[in-house]
Design goal:
2 copies of one chain form a homodimer. Chain A is an alpha/beta fold and about 400 residues long. The first copy, chain A, folds into 3 domains: about 70 residues, Winged helix-like DNA-binding domain superfamily/Winged helix DNA-binding domain (Arc Repressor Mutant, subunit A), CATH 1.10.10.10; about 130 residues, ATPase, nucleotide binding domain (Nucleotidyltransferase, domain 5, 2-Layer Sandwich); about 160 residues, Nucleotidyltransferase, domain 5. Chain A is about 40% helix and about 20% strand. Chain A contains 13 helices and 13 strands. In chain A, helix 5 links the parallel strand 7 and strand 8. In chain A, helix 2 crosses helix 3. The radius of gyration of chain A is 23 Å and the shape is globular. At the A-B interface, helix 1, strand 10, helix 10, helix 12 and helix 13 of A face helix 1, strand 10, helix 10, helix 12 and helix 13 of B. Chain B binds a DNA duplex (30 and 30 nucleotides) through helix 1 and helix 3.
Amino acid sequence: MKVGTAALTVDAAGMRAQNSSLLLNMIWRERQISRAEIARRTELSPSTVSAIVADLEHSGLVRSIGAGVSRGGRRPTLIGFRDDAFSIIGVEMGATHVTVVLTDLRGRVRTHRTASQQVRNDPEGTLKTVRTLVQECLDAERVPRRSVVGLGVAAPSPVHPSSPGKMSPLILPAWRGYDVREALSTTFDLPVFVDNDANLGALSECYWGAGIGGEDLTYIKLATGIGSGHIIHGDVYRGAGGTAGEIGHIAVDSAGPPCLCGLRGCLVTLIGSGALVERARELMGTKGRKAPTVREIVEGARAGDPAARQIIDGLGQYLGVAVAGLLNLLNPAIVVLGGEISSVGDLLLDPLRASVRKRALSTSMAETRIVTSALGDKSIAVGAATLVLQAALRDRTLFPLQHVGKSA
Amino acid sequence: MKVGTAALTVDAAGMRAQNSSLLLNMIWRERQISRAEIARRTELSPSTVSAIVADLEHSGLVRSIGAGVSRGGRRPTLIGFRDDAFSIIGVEMGATHVTVVLTDLRGRVRTHRTASQQVRNDPEGTLKTVRTLVQECLDAERVPRRSVVGLGVAAPSPVHPSSPGKMSPLILPAWRGYDVREALSTTFDLPVFVDNDANLGALSECYWGAGIGGEDLTYIKLATGIGSGHIIHGDVYRGAGGTAGEIGHIAVDSAGPPCLCGLRGCLVTLIGSGALVERARELMGTKGRKAPTVREIVEGARAGDPAARQIIDGLGQYLGVAVAGLLNLLNPAIVVLGGEISSVGDLLLDPLRASVRKRALSTSMAETRIVTSALGDKSIAVGAATLVLQAALRDRTLFPLQHVGKSA
DNA sequence: CTGGTTTCTTCGCAGTGCGAACGAAGTTTT
DNA sequence: AAAACTTCGTTCGCACTGCGAAGAAACCAG
């Protein structure tokens, strides 16, 4: 049951595919590397490496980029990954907006579009908005459909592994009957990958953020809702039912306020944006009559406003309870905090770390770094694109084949 | 970083090794299967399957076991896994005892030995006891060293992935400088695998217990300490520092008693054996002057003693807090409770499930079964042996080669 | 008993990676 | 400046693998 289920058989072609992917990943990772160096690291013979590199070059994924420094003999020819060989589309469906990015194969955003959109109750309108924005991105960069690897989608809902594309009927009841994957796949005739937004935030951090080089990471998204995603052994971990990472409904304070989910004292009722804003209204000299925004709390805290600081302190303390449990249970290498409020940095990290230290084993603490995200507001959409990239780097056949001559 | 690190290159021999392992696993799993059926399922050609099966047969791992039922033509020759081809040794180092089992390749215990042993403060004596018991098991079954695949060890300490064999200096300070793997490997000249006891309990459940057929499971060991182990995608998950699963020190009640670890209200201070016994002394009509044992609590609860029932209820409630957090964070398919106290079954499961229901998202709950272990008191030692089995089924070369003729 | 079906093996073929030999291109030594 | 050495990359024959077609063996149905 556990060993060989997923493993596929190998024939001669499969062997080539495996080694080919291995080399492709190495070249992607190293950005530039010589054939000789690849042969040394992979323990493949030089002749095999040359043959595979020729393959990859012919498919347009890599190219020669001049000579490297000599190690006492002939200078090596450096091979580089062609980040611009293909494009990827990443879509973030937030609570009240849709963001679409078009990235290259290095996670760089080449174009992006955002539109306000009530996602929760308007599947039809949301899909239409997504289609429009995707098309705009493609048109803006004059990217032909055939040079797009695929389309990644971040959804504000858990995604069940057995039916990617369908939203949770409990979180997004209005989406019953809709299948995002199906819908977009038929529209654009491209492979579509869907996952939860926090999971994709985690993937984004693992590839482009605080988790670079690591394989185990937990990302916590602090926003209207509180979600988290785990990267385990380099892969998004979804759990048995796709709801792994639902940190927002961990009961932190059994005497706390009731939550929409029916429980009491959920983390989200204490540190969700709504709770923070509410608390800010109580504490801060809310000049006018309007409730302050998260942005104002951030700015206030940075400016030294004691009320804002107090709110952030409280956030750190509550969050620490959940993070401590997380460290003991999962012992991730890194915990990354994302979401607008995380931009206060140490103002949040200090009370959080103190709170965790009071509640987690020192051994779990020792190995875990807790940091705030340095990626921008498009990190979720980029994470969606990264999901496609990850799949394609593992299975080269996902890259659309295009016969490339000698031209650049 | 995340994709190709672990992947190894493949050559012709590696291709054969992969396919060979795949077949070996299939035969192990199915117990009996024909070449034709293997070819259909794996999509390998009949000729290839025959060749590989001949290989496996020659190495003594499988054998023909007569004809199956016809599907309208020639009757298939069924191939069976030879569970008795090799033996595996499993060692459990508990808090106050050492248990050694000798199993076949199906996790069946052929011989076992147990001895009282203070493990915590006596590394030298513990290792000596282990050596003695292992040798006794080998002698009892007249098993030659060369037919033993390896030796698995369950340790009452987290094991850091980078130094398997070394105990945590915080949990077992007396073991500083000792390396269990090294020590036993040189004594017996066998491969040695070491892991945390709760992790191996989890593995045991996944292979032989409640988790059969699944790939994601969490095991919780209720004993002097409270530990847990996660099986993720069929593998033990150890976390970045090897301390994943330290559920015992999750803070459940911030107003609770202080714990040895320096924190307050740890789960273990509330539901560890010590706490249960202490509470029993308060509540139960402790006939004599001695403190009751866990066994007596179990028997009392079964017999209907209200005090014992109350203790179990409390256990279920506290444990529910931690399990709810676990479900939200990891969303495992199954949670298995082990340890002596778990033998009360529903008496514990009912209050536990109720407690969880009050604290976990219904979506997380829906996909998760919570059960008590049906494996016996040797499940941890068997889990240690299973770790070796798992490794060998993946890498056939771990099976000692022995030239087998046509004999049975 | 005959025709059809299924199982398993045999044998030649195509594809893959390897290794030795070689040429190409630098560096270091003389 | 020339020779000797080192490294890089390619070429080519070899060994091994899995495949597919063909065939033999074993069985069932009529």
